């Protein structure tokens, strides 16, 4: 076992104590609805997405309902999220692909999901994990920031961060690790002014250790 794997084990064990069974905060009933919600979540909060999808899924619950829309029509229903015009084009095209290529069912493999318009590795991994129960570790902005800040990864891209995390974390823990890191980044290890004073994993955090050392050095010269 590598030092990074040992560190990952300690960190995940600590996060598990607070939340043993973490779940996505996106609301959905079907793989299609999770796919839509995850596409909508880029540069938007889950709370914003849930407000939009509450009405959207009543109006267009499945891919067949959305496939016959124009992007302009769909855009009117998703204006509450960022980049809604681009997302409306992707969603309509994805709905049509799901109907035409996959008989109306969201595909359950990474390679197939990545062929859909607007679907990258993060979105595909979220769907695999949460809709199909397949171990996957999606790297969104929170996972990327937290993993690199605390020292579970040292990477410049989400893709490389994913590779490093999946090497350090056992496969059986990938899906839960994804949620733990997202939630930690969303509520504790925030982008600006992280809440280090309340963080339960600060003892294993590279950022915190550096911060502590800087404070100690500053005090030594005062």
**Would you report the number of β strands?**
0
Order of helices and strands: HHHHHHHHHHHH
Low-confidence stretches: 216-222
Strand residue percentage? under 5%
CATH third-level topology of the largest domain? Endonuclease III, domain 1
Distance between the termini: 42 Å
What this model shows, in words?
With 222 residues, the protein is mainly α. It has 2 domains: 3-22 and 138-213, Endonuclease Iii, domain 2 (Orthogonal Bundle), CATH 1.10.1670; 31-132, Hypothetical protein, domain 2 (Endonuclease III, domain 1), CATH 1.10.340. Helices cover 60% and strands 0% of the residues. The protein has 12 helices and no strands. It has helices spanning 3-18, 31-40, 46-59, 63-67, 71-75, 84-101, 110-113, 121-132, 141-150, 158-168, 174-187, 206-220. α2 packs antiparallel against α8, α9 packs across α10 (158-168) and α9 crosses α11. The model is unreliable at 216-222 (pLDDT under 50).
